[in-house]
């Protein structure tokens, strides 16, 4: 069974950058769609991006377009989310998830990581 583990979160100042990693085990990433989601305290979970492991196509929510970039490394069985020009409103727990539909709806995803905290504050 596919397992996902996120890493790379932390505290960063506004305008700074972070790169999140999503490492897969138990199965090879080949045809999946990997989605990135975030949930801030008191708010619903929000889809921010997805990437197709098979062809590398990507999609971004308007809130992060131009600032976040998803990428994949098939050799490492991992997916990444490069986050730049971070804002305080990006503060949230970030999750990666695997599914087979190109969607930002969390109900379309089957396997989930445990999340990593990103805090943007001066």
Key traits:
seven-stranded mixed sheet, four-stranded antiparallel sheet, globular, 51% strand, 122 residues, mainly beta
How is this structure best described in words?
The structure is a single chain. The chain is mostly beta strands and 122 residues long. The protein is 0% helix and 51% strand. The protein contains no helices and eleven strands. The protein starts with a strand and ends with a strand. The model has no long low-confidence stretch (mean pLDDT 97).
- Structural class of the helix and strand makeup? mainly beta
Net shape: globular
From N to C, what is the helix and strand string? EEEEEEEEEEE
State which percent range the strand residues make up. Answer: over 45%
**Count of alpha and pi helical runs:** 0
- Report the helical percentage: under 10%
- How is the biggest beta sheet arranged? 7 strands, mixed
Radius of gyration: 13 Å
Distance between the terminal alpha carbons, to the nearest Å? 40 Å
Overall mean pLDDT stands at 97
Low-confidence stretches: none
Record field, number of beta strands: 11
Summarize the structure.
The chain is mainly beta and 122 residues long.
SSE order and pairing:
Elements: E1 3-7, E2 10-12, E3 18-25, E4 33-39, E5 46-52, E6 58-60, E7 68-73, E8 78-83, E9 92-99, E10 109-112, E11 116-120
